[in-house]
Every structure is written in structure tokens, then in C-alpha cells.
Amino acid sequence: MRVNWVAIVLAGVADWILGAVWFTAFSNQWKAGLQMPQAEMERYAAHPNFWPYLASLVCSIGIAYVIARILAYAQTHGVFRGISTGILVGFAAAAAMVTEMVFEVKPRPFILISAGYPLIGCILMGIILGAWKPKASITTGTDVRST
């Protein structure tokens, strides 16, 4: 089954940018919830590392790919199908994160911020992938749901 890589990359980049905005908007509460000593946080900030940003982008594109594959199997294609698929995938990711963080005894605001991002991000990616019109098949003239 083929997928539309342009739409997947665009959705992944949009999610990645959302993450930057999300964690900047909630930075004080999120940093407090990290429970990282101030000296360690300052050391980390003094020597920025590109690796987490690259890993985050690759993971966002990977999740967009999963949403695109699920959408490809749907009987219909559109924004509302994308939203429902995004909710489904985002809820699964958020539930997994919450399960881990409650056992790590993280503060409730930290859990909501951390788990809220993949839920909202997956909905955003679902909107983008659902709105992207499938290409018509050259041989049959019918919609190809996986492009």
C-alpha cells in the first residue's frame, strides 16, 4: 500500500513545530515537573544538544506515517476521518505516557502537559493527512486511499 510522503513529512514537521510551541508555552510547569536539580538543568542549557530535536522530528514523522497507514485502510477519506484517527493514535500514546508517569510519581500538571502534547499533535497530523486529497489511480480512475 502506497502512502503520500509529502503529506506525511508535512504532518510530522507540523507536529514537531507544535511541540516547540507547546513546551515553550508550558515551560515553567514542565521544567518544575521534571524534578531535575537546578544545577543539572543549567548545565544542560549551557551545552545544547541537537540530538533530542532530531529524534523528536524523526518520531513525529514516524507517527504521521502510522496515522497515514491507518487512514489508508478507511472506507472514507477526509478531515473528520483524520481527526478520529488522530484521536485514536494520540489517545494510545497519551495513555502509555500516563501509565509510565504515574508510576514515576510525576506531578499532575507535568503529566497533563506531557501526555496532552501527543494527543493534540496526533489530531493535528490527522487533520493534515485527512485533508490531503487522495490521488486518483492512473489505471482505474478510482481514488487511491493510501497515497
What's the short story on this structure?
This protein has 6 helices and no strands.
Task: Please tell me about this protein's structure.
The chain has helices at 5-25, 27-34, 38-46, 51-72, 79-103, 108-131. By secondary structure, the protein is an all-alpha fold. The protein has one domain. It is elongated. It starts with a helix and ends in a 16-residue tail after the last helix. The mean pLDDT is 89.
- Ends apart, CA distance between termini: 8 Å
Question: Overall pLDDT, averaged?
Answer: 89
Characterize the main sheet.
Answer: none
* Rg, nearest Å: 18 Å
User: What structural class results from the helix and strand content?
Assistant: mainly alpha
- Shape call: elongated
Order of helices and strands: HHHHHH
Low confidence ranges: none
> In percent terms, what proportion of residues is strand?
under 5%
Question: DSSP helix count?
Answer: 6
Tally of DSSP β-strands = 0
The helical percent reads: over 70%
Secondary structure: elements and pairs:
Blueprint: H1 5-25, H2 27-34, H3 38-46, H4 51-72, H5 79-103, H6 108-131
Helix pairs in contact: 1-4, 1-6, 2-6, 4-5, 4-6, 5-6
What would the keywords be for this entry?
147 residues; mainly alpha; 6 helices; elongated
